[in-house]
Structure formats: structure tokens, C-alpha cells
Amino acid sequence: MTGEVALAVLLLGPLLAALGCLLAGRQGSTVALLALIAGAAAVVVLWDGMLRTGPIEVRLGGWGAPLGIVLRADGLAVGFLAAAVVVMGAVWAVARHDFATPRARDVFWPSSMLLWGALNAIMVSRDLFNLYVGLELLTLTAVAMVALGRGPGAIEAALRYVLYALMGSLVYLLGVVLVYHGHGTLDLDRIAAGRSGADALALGLMTAGLAIKTALFPFHAWLPPAHAGAPSPASALLSALVPKAGFVMLVRLWFEAMPDATPPAALAVMAALGAGAILHGGLMALRQERLKQILAYSTVAQLGYLFVMFPLVGGAGAGTAGAAEAWAGTQIGAFSHALAKAAVFLCAALWIRAIGSDRLADLAGLARAMPLSCFAFGMAAVSLMGLPPSGGFIAKYLVMRASFELGLPGWGLVLAAGGLLAAAYFYRPLAALFAREPPRVQRTPRLLEAVPLALALAAAALGVLSQPAYDLLQAGAPAYARGIGP
Amino acid sequence: MSAIALPDVLTIVLTGLGLLFFLAGTVGLLRFPDTFSRLHALTKADNVGLGLVALGVALQAETWGQLARIALVWVLALVAAGLVAQLVARAALVDRRLRG
Amino acid sequence: MTGSVVLFVVTASALIGIGLWGFLVQAHLLRRVLAFNVVGSGLFLLFGALGWRGGGVDPVPQALVITGIVVALAATAVALWLVGRFAEETGRADLPEDRREDRQEKSSAGGRP
Amino acid sequence: MTVLFDLVLCALMLLAALAAIGGRGLFRATVFFVAYGITVALAWVRLGAIDVALAEAAIGAGLTGLLLLGAVARLRRAGAPEFPVRAGLVPALAAAGVAGATGWVALRVPGAGGLWTEAGEALPLSGVENPVTAVLLNFRAWDTLLESIVLLAALLAVWALAREEEWEAPVGPPLHARPGGVLEGMARLLPPVGIVVGVFLVWAGASQPGGAFQGGTVLAAVGLIAALAGLVALPRPDSGSWRTALAAGPAVFLLVGASGLALGGLLLFPPDWAKAMILTVEVFLTLSIAATLALLVLGPPQPRRMP
Predict the structure, then answer these.
(1) Whole-model pTM?
(2) Looking at chain A, which residue has its C-alpha nearest residue C82?
(3) Which structural domain range is residue D36 located in?
(4) Is a pLDDT exceeding 60 seen at residue C104?
């Protein structure tokens, strides 16, 4: 019962807080703080309940599938709920001072709470149409945040984002219609139990729609301008959390709902798109002049990492220990990317407020004036590159080992290449930050600089203490993810 | 054909007449030169047409509730058509005076 | 399935095709949002027609379509106000990558979706 | 005989859609889109789904058409150039491919019969007689709750477009209704009828076609007429009363849903209290939907420049 109460707090809490922020106006950030504290407590209760009694399932309204909606908090979901709370808390700490004007404040705080609520709803939902409504809510709040940006390209970036997102959600919905026609239900587990001739086309359409929403290469054109154009604290939320929702939905669809509708060729195509994202994102990041653009293209590349696991977990390797390793490695990689990417964007937020620009030339020698945040940026960059000790390293190691074990070394090499590219595009900002000349800088409270540092340390800790994360993922993981035959 | 009940015959005749008026209104819309004569054609012909069709359908209504709703539809359509025609005419006048 | 439902399924699919074509090929932003709505209504019509049995439509697709129509309206409103604001700021009604004169000298690497 | 009617209706739908997308002028395209929306609503009537026909006509054709007309006027004021439709083979093939594949699979794959029986069995316990309302406000209440929040999120995104200095300005376009003119007469005559029809739609939703969204849309339209005619002062984004109206519906829905926890399950409506709980939620939901839809059409606060 306490599990259901904790889930209720995590689902209804953020939405109530958003209404509170809308009505509270100036005290919006305090309402948000209260919701975050309640949310953090709920995640701890869920985490503990999960480890003891396995996944917590809630049949909304008591109806259950197929008529009602079923929610289930399994290891993967609780992992992302935890990452979301941590990132939201860090963004709250930095953004408290940022959104002073009434317009920015009255839009950012309700929208951030709605974004958090939508993300929680998507992570635990087992119903295809409920996932669609959650995804649409997530997208509209993200568009609101991009539109808040003051830069010249913010409106154009928000418009391109909304156009891509509109068509992505409709293509996904077309797949849902075909699934309902073929299976007579929208619940993931009941779809897995049945077969339908429409599965292949439906999965293809849903995957195309979600690929657009997750900005998987070649549908990534909307992400860099949107994440670079949004205000920095918002960019942290957009880059760290929003694309993960589409990714989790894809994982549930491909491996839990329709494992048989995924031929090896399709799995290889997904990994190839991921490889394309890693290369394209990395190369484009090398050519950017502004820090936030580098970080945005870094997100495009890092999202590519997540798709390399598809041929390893599905297809020939399905059900082997290697597949379970690849799956767990990818999810730990997603958690550590969320923490590390939020850290670097929050560093960018502090620097932009201190020196007014994020051009690499203007960042020269900033480490002497703001050592804490520059160190945090370095730590987070280490995790994004996948060097030890960091969650990124553990993730890369597990997936590479699995790829070698399963005889598909090519994908392991792609990850290695991605790591080199990441090192390359992070070198220029790091070199600028730790350069010799002392810049003129306005005092930034040390406490604020500690926030990205905490996130970067958490990403590093995920590498050292990866066992709890691994246990969490295994608790309640579907059969394919525990190395047990399908 | 078997003997059709009187109300059905009346319905067919009335709706047929109504459609004729709609046709006249549409022809007026396409043929007339300027906005005002088009508005004139549309509001006159279409409203009578709608009245006839409403009357024809009213004969098929079983309960008083349906009858009231059909009447409400007709009255609302009349009011809306009249008012909108006024507004469009005024806008056309202002537009013509601006363009000289 | 009786004849008229097959007719609605075919028409709905055609509407999706028309709308998708309109969205992909048009450059004018307002037409693209309009095409999005055509795809949406076509898709919902397909959902309802496939749920047809006896005298009416299965209540679950009906409820989902009503929810979908409202969500599509919300997204359309945001898109249209963004288009209006974009036009006020740039005086244009098409995204840079769709502009005809830009396409000649820039080889469209990556292309649009 | 009826198949002939459906054939003509489908032909009308396709022609209207083509004209809307391929039409020469923007205004012409929008007008054809509204006509297209009405034919789709008729198609829903032919399919026997009256609730959806109401929603499609009111929201799909009505409000969306209104938003499009507003956008056409704004684009014309901003001087954005119109340009002709462009042809393109690859997009045409892609679109035809998706549509063809969807149609082929939809016709070839036998349907799984949907959830008729389950919905029918659970209806007596749902507290309402109209199965669609039962699905919307009881079986899948979580979807509808999220949907009402989506409307609020959309409004926040639209308000985010206001420039910083305009935040205190009232929302909506510059008004030029003549006092005592025809529009004001219309704004005095229609609202009472509109309110009666809207409230009836919401109340009837429990047993006949209707519901919070369809009723809310009618009330929003009535509010818009009164606002554009200058009878009602245009709201400001920071006005407390309007924000309360916006938040009331979702807030009540959330609290009623949370109260379910005490009764044994999240979003649980026990059969004997279900009707009362659903009606309470529906009343507040209609208020919020009407306010949000009206504000979505009025848009972000704009400077008071004279036309």
C-alpha cells in the first residue's frame, strides 16, 4: 500500500505543485521545493519497496487491463524517477535566481513541474495511449521552456521543435491505432501475450514517431537549436531528461511488448542510426563556437550510445547473460548521462550569468575565478567521455564486453570511437577554461557552484557504486534483461 | 412503389425545394459581381432553403424535444446569418473606403 | 465489415496520405499546421471506423479520439501562435531550411524527415 | 441507398481536404479546412459516434478553424509572403506509402473486436450510463486528467511568447467593435442561449452524447463573443481570478483522484459514489476547459497598438 501512496505522490504531486506555482506567483519556487522534497521521499520509499517486494503495480480505478490503465514501477522506472528528482533538485537550486521577471517566473516554474510530472507518468505507464498523452504533455512543456529563451533564434527553435514533435506524435499514434485494431488492447503485457498481422507496421510507425521525439539521427535537426536557445537551467532539463522518455518507450515497445516483431535487420538499423548519431553529433560538436551548442550536439551523440544495445539485447543474443549486461550497461549509461549533462549545462548557466556569454573565447581562464564549477565541468566531461571512474565508463565497459561476447565487436568499436570524439569536443572548452589569462568576473556564491559539482560527483559515484544501480535494474526487470531465456 | 405515407411525401418535396433555394444561393454567390449582391443572394436564398429543409425534417421528428431542437437550429442559423452578413458588409464598406 | 465502413477506412487512409504529403512538401508553416490537422482527423476517423460494430463505435476508441482531438487542438494552438510570432519577428512564414533560394547553394545534407 | 450517401460524403471529405492543403490562398485554404472539419463530423455521425461528432465539429472544425483564421490575419499583418504550393515526388511517395500500407493492413488484418464486452460489463459500476463518458471519466480517468493538464501546458507555452514588457497587457487582439453595433447586439443575444446549450451538453453527458469537452467548447465560444464585443474585460495573464478558473478543474480532478487512495485505490470511484464524484469533477473541469480554450484562442498578451 505504501508503494501505491509513494507512486501517487510522484504522479499527482508535480501536477498539483504546477497548479500551486501558477497560483503562487512569486512563491512559485517554494511550492516547487516542497514538491521536490515530497518527490525525493517518495522515490526513496519506492526504491526500498522495489528491492524488497519487486515491481509495484497499480491498477488505476481498480479496473486493470484491458479496460483501465495499469502503472508499474520496475527497476528501470525507479532509476529514471530517481535521476529526474536529482536533476530537478539541482535545476531548482540554480534556477531560483534566474527567473526573476514575472513572465519567466510564472511560465518556468509551472512548466518545470509539469515536465517532471509528465516524465514520471511516462516512466511508470504500461498503456500505449496513456504514454502518448504523457509524451504530448512533456513536449508542450519543453516547447514552453524553449520559447522562454531570449536569444534571437529561440522562437525559430521552438517552432521547429513543435513541428517535428507534432508529426512525431501523430506517426506514433497511427501505430497505436493499428495495435488496438490487431490486439484489442493497449496494455503492454497483453500485447506481448498476443500476435497480430499489423505488429510489424505498427512497431515501425511507433518507432519512427518516437525516434523523432528522441531526436535520434537523422531526425535530430530540431534538438541543437532548441537546447542551445533555451535558458540554461531549462536546457539542463531538456537535454538530461526529455529525450530519455522517448527512449524508455522504445525499449518497452521493442523488448517487452513486441519482441517477436523485431527482426535482426531492424535491430541493426537502430544501432546503425545510433552510430550515425554518435559520429554526426561528435563531428558537429567539434565545429561549434559556443559552449551550449557543443553540449547540445553532445546530447545528440550521447543519445546514439543508448541505441547501440538493440542488436545485443534482441536478436541472436536475446536471453543470454551478455544481453542482460548490455541492457543494464545502457540504462546505467542513461542515468549517468542525465546527471553529467545536467551538471555541464548548469555550469554553463552559472558562467553565462557571471560573464554574460558562452562563447569559448570569452570563457578563457575562468577556472581561476570559478574553480569549483570548472572542476565540476571537468568531472562531468570525464563521465560523458566514458573514462573511469564514472557511470559512463561502467556503461561503456558493460556494453563493449557484451558486444565482444556476443560476437558483434563492431558495436563495441563504435562506442570506443564515440569516447574519442567526446574527448575531442570537450578538449576545447576545457582548454579555454583552464587557460592562463585572469578574466574579470562577478562574484558567484560558492554554494551555487557546489550544485553542478554535486551532480558531477553523483555521475562519478555511479561508476564506483554501480552495484546498487545494477541491483535496482535487475529487481523487476523483464526476463530478457535478467539473462533468462525468453 | 407502395403508397408512401403523406408526411414522407411532404418531407421529400420540402427538402427538395429547400435544396433548390440553396442551389440558387450558390449560383448567386458565384455569378454576382460584388460583395454586397453576393451577400444578398446568400442570406436570402440560404435562409429560405434552410427553413424548408427544417420544416421537411420536422415532419419526421417523433418527440417534441426534437422539434424544439430543430426550431432552435433554424432560429440560431437565421440570427447568425443576418448578423454575420451585416458585419461582412460593414467590413467590405470600410475596406472599399480605405482602398479608395 | 459492411461496405460503408470499408469506405470510411479507405477514405481515412487517403486523408492520412494527403495530410502527410501536405506536411512534408509544403514550406508555408500555416499550411503545414493545417496538414497536421488533416492527418490527425484522418487518423482518428480510421481509429473510429476500425472500432465500428453493429450500430455504433466501440466506446474506448471514441473516448481516445475525443482526448486526441483536444490534445491536437492544444498542440495546434501553440504551433499557430509560434508561427504568428515567428512571422512578426522575421517577416517570413517558412523555416530557413525550407526556403527555395537557400536550397540551391546548400547541398541539403541530412535532409528533412 | 445509404452507401451512396457515404460515397458522396467521402468524396466531399477528400475534395475538401485537397482544397484545404493545395488551395491557392491561405484564407481559401482555411475556409475549406472548416468545411472539411464539418464533413468529418458528418462522417462520425454516419458511424454512430455522436460524442465524437460533437467534439470534431466544435473543436476540430470550429476552434481549430478560428485559430487558423486568426493566424492568417496575423501573418497578413506581419507581411509574410504567401507562395504557391510546391510539388515533390519523394514526399508524395513516402506519404502514399504510409497511407497505402496503413489502409492495406487495416483492411487485411482481422480486428480483435475491441473492448465492447468489457466496457459493457463495467458500465453499471461506472456511475454513468453513457459508455464514452464512463471510459473518459472513470475507466481511463488518468488520460483525461493528463489531457486537461495538456491544455494548461499549451496555454503556458502560448503565454511564454509574450514579450517581457507586454506581460501586464491584457491578452487578445486589439478590439474594434463599435459600441452598440451589430457585434455587441450579437454578444448580448447569443451568450444566454450558448450557456444553456453548453450546460445541457455537460449535464446530458452522463446519459446521452455530450460531456465536459463539448460543453466547455460551447461555453468558450460564448465567452469569446462577449470578450471580442468588449462586453467582458479581456483578462490579464497575472489576474488571480482567471488563474483560479484555469487551475480549478485539474485541481478538483487531482484531489478527487487522490481521495481514491483512502477508498482503496488511486483514481478509484466506488460504484455508489461514482456519479456524484464524476459530476463534481465534470462541473469544475468544464469551467477550466472553457477558460483555457478561450484564452488559447485569445493568445498571448499583445501591445495595445491601434489597428
Answers:
(1) 0.93
(2) A159
(3) 1-82
(4) no
